Amino acid sequence: MKSDPAKRIYDIQQFGEFGGVNPSITDSSTYTFLEGETMEETFLGHMEGCFLYSRHWNPSNKYLADALAAMEKTESAWITSSGMAAITCSLLQLCNSGDHIVTSVTTYGGTYAFLKNWLPKYNIEVTFVDITRLEEVKNAMRPNTKVIYTETVTNPLLQVSDIPELARIAHAGNAKLMVDNTFTPMIFSPAELGADFVVYSMTKFINGKNDCVAGAICGSNEFIAQLSNVNDGTAMLLGPVLDPLRSSSILKNLHTLHLRMKQHSSNAMYIAQKLEELELSVKYPGLKKHPQHELHTQLMNQQFGYGGMLAIDFETEKNANTIMNKMQQAGVGYLAVSLGYFRTLFSCSGHSTSSEIPIEVQKEMGLSDGLVRFSVGLDNDIEETFEKIKSCL
């Protein structure tokens, strides 16, 4: 057992203001000071334990940040109002005009659009690579490279990033490694493997209910202080703060994440193996034929399985849409974007969550027109679910 992020969360003792077993929800946007000097010191960032204004810090977000930092084994964390806010604020804090980023071409469509279309407007160059080809990553590095950015398991092709080797490449070039671990919370501990920063869309597995949008940035005390600095911190100045009520809700859900990830993984493994037996083209890191199966097995926290995400190639969009419609009608789950929900969700990636990636790039990276991404739910009777899937094929 390499790491136990669930135990690290469990070991935190966080009580409510009046001794409640749940931390109190702070229903305030601003906070009082007993002395004017204390307010000034807080503005300057010199006062620990004082809250100034909820866009900067608030107690509810701090409780959740502390729990996430414990889970990731980082010094600190910052809570944002979306996963994209976590990604964009982190990269903009690290990079200035004239800097360079190396990133995986296989990534979430919104991330791709930000890297490809938005950053060049500010003279920040981005090189897209096959993140599984380490020589390609090395060759893409430049003297002005500030960040290597990747997803632990890429969206939607489920490639596995070699985090220790990517960290070595980044650090040899005086750059940082940033890892989006949205698909695999608890399954991977990127900071322990060498990543400098870990980002999440907490909308997905961490919250698990699809009832809010939220994100997180986990890193060093120094970096989180930079992000929240009132003068030049991107998270402070761009203002993607999460409402305290949502922070409180996510914190409670975080304490069941270890149970949910095990069930997601168990169900996804069953479905993937059964689909493989039917000789369908299925991508799942838990299958021995997956190109990075051994790497995943080597780097993962074994007790949580191989994750709840898989992909099936139905070759054409028409085939994909026909089968997805049938599966929704049969009660397999919902034809919807997003992931990490307690019900199974499925979508045709090239025409939904990866639609920001140009068609020619999709073809180059191996994204089939009929690839369907599955976020396998928490079904209690996964055998029955598979029989429903089978009837729709």
Automatic annotation (TrEMBL):
Cellular component GO terms, alphabetically? cytoplasm
Which GO terms fall under biological process for this protein? transsulfuration
Q: Which UniProt keywords apply?
A: Aminotransferase, Pyridoxal phosphate, Transferase
A GO MF term: transaminase activity
N6-(pyridoxal phosphate)lysine occurs at which residues?
A: K204
Cofactor(s) this protein cannot do without: pyridoxal 5'-phosphate
Which Gene3D superfamilies is this protein grouped with?
A: Aspartate Aminotransferase, domain 1 (3.90.1150.10), Type I PLP-dependent aspartate aminotransferase-like (Major domain) (3.40.640.10)
Family matches, as InterPro entries: Cys/Met-Metab_PyrdxlP-dep_enz, PyrdxlP-dep_Trfase, PyrdxlP-dep_Trfase_major, PyrdxlP-dep_Trfase_small
Lineage: superkingdom? Bacteria
Into which family does the record put it? Belongs to the trans-sulfuration enzymes family.
What protein name applies here?
Aminotransferase class V-fold PLP-dependent enzyme
